[in-house]
Amino acid sequence: MAELLLRDLCRWDRRFTILCPPGASEEAVLDRPVSWAVSVRAAPPFLPPLRGDELIVLSGRILREIQAGGMADAEELLETLADAPVAALVTEPNLFDEPVGSLPLLLFPGPIPLDLESNLNRLLTEQRRALFRLSTELTRDLSRAALTGGPEAVLQAAALASGRSLVLQDSEGRVLASGGDAPVAAAPTALAHARSHPSVRALPEGNDERLLTAISVGGRLAYLSLLAPGSSATERDRLVLSLVAGLCASLLAQEGRGARPAPISQLVADLLLGRLSESVLPHAAQRLGLDTNEPVVVALLGGDSTEQREEAVRQLLEPRARERSTVLGEELAFLLVPEEADSAVSRAASLGRRTVGGSLRLGATARGEATERADWFLVLSRPIGRLRATPEGLHQARFLAGLVRAGALPGPVVRFDSLDDTGPFALLYLLWGHPETEAFRRRVLGPLLEDDERTGELLQTLAAYLEYGSASEVAARLGIHRNTVAYRLAQVAERTGRNLADPRDRLLLELALLVGALPPAEPSVPH
């Protein structure tokens, strides 16, 4: 049966406001499952034994009693709860400054009433009863439909019972079955975000919301989606999708519909995006010519055009390595064994900075200087120990690709495990996407981040000065007068309050500029 989530509770009772932990997305927090509500007691033991996913109710009155007795303070109590396997802390505004660890806060708009725990448990019990009744009735109806008409009849029965449209698609996006009024297939870009059944991904589509799950059938994938028009999907919709997905998996396995072997490119994409379950990994590895427990390297190859990328592939990669590829955004992604990665780097070294067409292009470094730039780049993750962990390799490669595209790393070849290639960005990778990095940059650079031509010139001059350390060298590199350099540096010092003669201040400024060169944050790596 479908789990009840924090998003369901927030939809049932609009009085609650969610406060997410630092670095956590609201989508991930709202998808936390909820079991029951339990209240914190005023005397030890503060909580009954926890089984997981509880809502912990803590009122200001109870917190004050605990503190008055000297048994704990607010921070100690919050840190204790943050280590517990609970869904969220239900509390009042202004009791805590912010969440601690991974524990979200669910804020009640005023003093928590004495009966909130019992009311929450009554609500959860009623909703579970309703889901159980729906599950029983729908399972019976879907089973009858499966006996008479296969997946098409199942989806039509589900659409009739739920009032939603459902679509079953194969790994290439072709519609295998559908049900409902004017069902619309999910776009290939949406399929790329599917989670493996029984997990469900909710994706916005204009004013609608689509629930999507991936079904594994003998190592092959199919996708089932449900469209909730003009509204957000509910726990009933997730239950319908889950029941239909389980039944369709059985039917596809029996009938062989949609069971054509997935193309290699689809397998590579599913591996990199973390969409394959453990049960199908050995089959996928066999088709790719890889070992599930041997290291792999994730590579991204980019170019100014499709033709240049394809020519670079021919020159840099061995034939077997070329097969393990897929298109991800603007780059080609590859799964390589370490020996293939070493060979690609060696071949790239023989090309030097030449373009595949034999010419050079002028680009610009992060400091605004004109420089020769190849019209292709190849970035490689460190060797990833297990095939299951390739999403982490993709995360590393995308980090490097963003830096190369921005001119922060010269390329054309960058290896994540080479400190000579990555420099300080190897350390900054660990802070990529953390909200404190941008806060640090703004504290250090301050007025220099205003969006106008003047501040752009000051940042460019500051970056060049931090690299070359000489006003004369900066003037020569940027093609401006030495007095102009001196004036700009004086403006930098005045606006930031930093002394460029102080090594500590120079280090802070350099770090702030490096943080500003980081690519836009991406979603966290699936585990």
Can you walk through the features of this model?
The chain is an alpha/beta fold and 527 residues long. 45% of the residues lie in helices and 16% in strands. The strands form four sheets. Strands 6, 7, 8, 9, 10 and 11 form a six-stranded mixed β-sheet that branches. A hairpin with a 4-residue loop joins strand 6 and strand 7. Helix 5 packs across helix 7 and helix 18 (471-478) crosses helix 19 (482-496). The longest helix has 47 residues, at 116-162. It starts with 5 loop residues before the first helix and ends in an 11-residue tail after the last helix. Residues 353-371 have low confidence and may be disordered.
What attributes does this structure have?
527 residues; 6-stranded mixed sheet; alpha/beta; 20 helices; 5-stranded mixed sheet
Cα distance spanning the termini: 23 Å
Count of beta strands: 18
Structure annotation, total helices: 20
Radius of gyration, whole Å: 28 Å
- The outline comes out as flat
Helix content: 40-55%
Question: How does the helix and strand content classify structurally?
Answer: alpha/beta
Largest sheet: 6 strands, mixed
Query: What portion of the residues fall into strands of 2 or more residues?
Result: 15-25%
As residue ranges, the low-confidence spans are 353-371
What do the pLDDT scores average to?
84
